[in-house]
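USER:
Class, as today's exercise, take the chain set out below, and explain how the chain folds.
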Amino acid sequence: MRILGGRDAVLSSTPWMAFLHNHLQFVCGGSLITREFVLTAAHCVMPTPKNLMVRLGEYDLTRQWDCINDVCAPKYREYMVTRIYTHPSYRSIAAYDLALLKLNQSVEYTGAIRPICLVMPEKFHEWYRLVDSVKEFTLTGWGVTETEPVSHVLQTANLTQINRRTCHDQYGHSVDHTHICAGSSDSFACVGDSGSPLGMKVEHNRRNVYAQVGIVSRGPKHCDGVTVFTNVVSFTEWIFSTILYDAKYMS
């Protein structure tokens, strides 16, 4: 998927963004969710790519150091992917399109590298209602733009939530509560940004935080309509249980 109608993101404004690549060949976007795990789409890693790397703290792909008005962010950091967990029910892009990537070492947080918030399992129903009521989300990624084959600067765009019934009419029965549909007349995702996070601001402990609610999954062939996102709220329990399993049995 790629972002069309987007704009340059503010430097270090989305420190959870992950740039997945294979020998510097762009693979997909992703999001840092813990010191050792990145969340992305399952179709990005099926079949499993060799020598998959994750770059954190990236902004402008053409520069070693990212600076705006003489203010520079710390240099990006590279991590190897040592294990890949795709959802056990994943068979195609139509459903269960999410995966966890285990990094080769613990990530040191900086001003340019921090995890994104996820929904806690005990608040499923509350979050389902909240996500369904949201009118607008924010998407970020390095996908193709109207003028560049690959955007060298991280892009962001605001997307309007689309009723699932409308989305169902376009994609069929494969769109259900485990998906989020979003797009707008001038901003939407297309080929190039798969795996990137869809998020929104929520109130937590009397302050606003940014939480991930979706993962770019699929869109129309000609990039002219609604984009379908994996609804992260539906899979938070699997995400947390997989991380706990890895810590207990794979360390």
